Amino acid sequence: MSAPDVQAPAPAPALIPTLGGRYYTDPDIFVSEQENVFEAMWFCAARTADLADAGAFKKVTVGRESVLVVRGRDGALRAFLNICRHRGAMLCTEDEGQVRRNLQCPYHAWTYGLDGKLVAAPNMAALRDETGADIDRVRYGLVPVALREWLGYAWVCLADEPPSFEDEVIGSVTERLGDPAAIDRYEIGTLELGRRITYDVAANWKLIIENFMECYHCATIHPELTEVLPEFADGLAAQYFVGHGAAFGDEVEGFTIDGSGGFEALSGISDDQDRKYYAITVRPQVFVNLVPDHVIFHRMYPMSADRTIVECDWLYAPDVTASGRDVSRSVELFHRVNEQDFDACERTQPTMSSKAYRDGGVLVPAEHHIGEFHDWLLTRLGGDAK
Ligand code: FES
Ligand code: FE
Questions:
Q1: What residue's CA is closest to ligand 1, atom 2?
Q2: Does ipTM come in above 0.95?
Q3: CATH number for 224
Q4: Domains held by the chain: number
């Protein structure tokens, strides 16, 4: 007798566990993340156009280090540890600024060129190293940090042997978009800043990434976004990687707060990229959103286990910014999304230390890719237990 031709129903997709609450609150875990993630990988530090002139600098916290990104007199952008080689004072204490010729330590006035070399110190002619020779201006210069420029941003890496930028950063983007040229068509490096908003978020950096990775919450908290991108309303989209492009609603004219028309599409994009939204997460701390007439570029700066600064740039074609056209309707859409997302993260952070979340929560099927992020993190931290 043959078996009845009845197929067993497919098992319902399982819930899978998240990280336990301590991963979002424990300062020791945060230190391990600083060491194994932010100090080990390429970290997006600054917009290069903010540092256009020689002597312009920006101070950035990368993991446990303070890093200075500086424009040299030769036009090159360089990065250094922001630490004086004499007795270790922090060299620049302002977040950003402009020096005329050199960087001078405010403690005993050791002075460094914009290329990091020691150029002067009080009584320098009398200074000798341990062999009695003149002091070596490079050896006692600022400690250099690896820097690469891509998409109009300076990315730095504190690792002694930085991983391949092509593989870790560029490759991760082109691979996810499928077409290696897809991101190049937006010519992000040529766009200009229309608006920057900085958010000081009282939440662990992973809550922000995890939130960005799922759209299960979109129908609940993003009424304006789901109006423009109807496919986000079903909660299934993975917002971190909309590689196929989420189509605008039929009635929607542009990626604006009310769906009204935006600006002309960026000149390089393909017909296929028009009227679509793409989103990419570049681990560990960058989110890029691509829409036809602008690009939204987020960088996260994790400051402590329960605080993350997020800097968000809205970038437009140079003729849009030069003409003084009003960008506020397109800025307002993602600004509102950011506020809605960061409110949710801030509501979640305080309860991470509750005993109700000691063993974590669960991921529904639409969030399962967050589990991959957790596995990736645990591998980087060298641990295995959740
Ligand atoms: Fe900088 Fe002394 S610590 S000059
Ligand atoms: Fe969201």
A1: 108
A2: yes
A3: 3.90.380.10
A4: 2
